[in-house]
Amino acid sequence: QLHFAESGGGLVRPGGSLRLSCAASGLPLENYAIGWFRQAPGKEPEGVSCISAIDSFTYYADSVKGRFTISRDNAKNTVYLHVNNLKPEDTATYYCGAALFGAGYCALGPGEYDYWGQGTQVTVSS
Asked: What is the dihedral of CA 20, 110, 108, 91, to 10 degrees?
């Protein structure tokens, strides 16, 4: 069974940066697409970014394009999300998930992902 542990969140000023990590255990990540999602209080979950299993195709929500970068290190069984130039509206709990989409594809629909971690909190405030 695949399990995730998210880390790297914290309190940061507007314009700051963090590196969020999604460390997997139980199964290797190499065959899975990985997605990052976030949820703020009182709001629906929002897909942020995803990366495909084989060729590392990446996709970003319009709200984070140019500011966030997703990457994966299969040897370390870990996926990262670098969050840059943070804004107060980025404040949320960030989750990672895994899906067996096949080579060269990923998507940002939360219902399409099968495995989830417990999340890491990102708070952007001056």
From this structure: -40
In this prediction, residue 104 carries a pLDDT of 84
More confident residue, 11 or 116: 11
Report how far residue 76's alpha carbon sits from residue 117's, in angstroms, rounded to the nearest whole number.
Answer: 17
Q: Are 116 and 96 in contact (CB under 8 A)?
A: yes
Q: What is the DSSP string of 54-118?
A: SS--EEE-TTTTTTEEEEEEGGGTEEEEEE-S--GGG-EEEEEEEE---TT-----GGG--EE--
Task: Report d(CA 82, CA 86) in Å as an integer.
Answer: 10
- Give 38-84 pLDDT, tens digit per residue: 999 999 999 999 999 988 899 999 999 999 999 999 899 999 999 99
